[in-house]
Every structure is written in C-alpha cells, then in structure tokens.
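A quick aside before the break. I want you to see a complete sequence-to-structure record at least once, exactly as it would be stored in a machine-readable document. Don't worry about memorizing anything.
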Amino acid sequence: MAGQICLRVMIEQADLASAAADAVKLCGAIAGFGDLMALNIDRYWKINGYFEAALSLQVDQPGETLPSVADALAPDWEWGSDSDWAVWDRKSHGTFKVQSLVASVRWAHVELLPDRPDREVGPISSVTGSDYALSAPKPTVPKS
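That is the input. The structure line, written in tokens, reads:
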C-alpha cells in the first residue's frame, strides 16, 4: 500500500539560499526511495541561523521504507513506540551520513504520514519557501 513519509531537518546556514542548496542535496539523498511530493524551507523561529526543511516522499511500502530512509541519513535514531516516527540529533546520535550535509544538519525527524483521501498524489511541481521558489523536478537554488 502506497503512503507518504515526512522528513523534517534543521539546517544551520548563514542564509536561505545556502539552506535551500542543502535541502536540494537532501532531496538527492532520498530520491531513490520514492517520489518527492513537497519541499518547504523556512527560517526556524526558535534558533537564529537555523532553517527547517520539510520534505514529503510518496513510497510504495511506507512501513518498510521508513527505517531504510532513516538509516540512509543517519545512525542511531530514537524510535517512537509504534516505530512510525524517529528523531535524530547530532549531539546524541552521531554524525549525519550524507557527507555533503555533515557540517550543516543539526536535527532530523522522520514519520509516516496518515492516509488522507484529500491528499494530492503526484510528483512535485514546485518547491516553496518564505523568500523564494525552486522548480522541479530538477530544483535550482536562486542566487542571493
């Protein structure tokens, strides 16, 4: 049964364009697991210099794919009681595995999204954020 996986990542960068570039690298790291449905990047309101990238991935076997996505990104996730979500923190759980993002990723969360009849299913058509828009399927980062 097809479903969606949500990935939220806190990226520490000097500006939105740099955070967006890191988010595009993250998309490349998980692209083999399913179809990227959405990507949104905004400043994280609690910590200056952090940006939150939220990605939604359409997959064929969400329950089986979630641990594979998590393992591809980082070691030693802290799993929820039903194993339908997990949290990773650089200070507690080791180094992020995507080498090009090791310096900037601080925290990550993966979860299965519940099925909803009103959820749009189809490949990503745009990547949005508070100050920019990226194009898909090959996102590009705007110059600052």
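Two observations worth writing down. The longest helix spans residues 16-30. The two ends are 42 Å apart (CA to CA). We'll return to this after the break.
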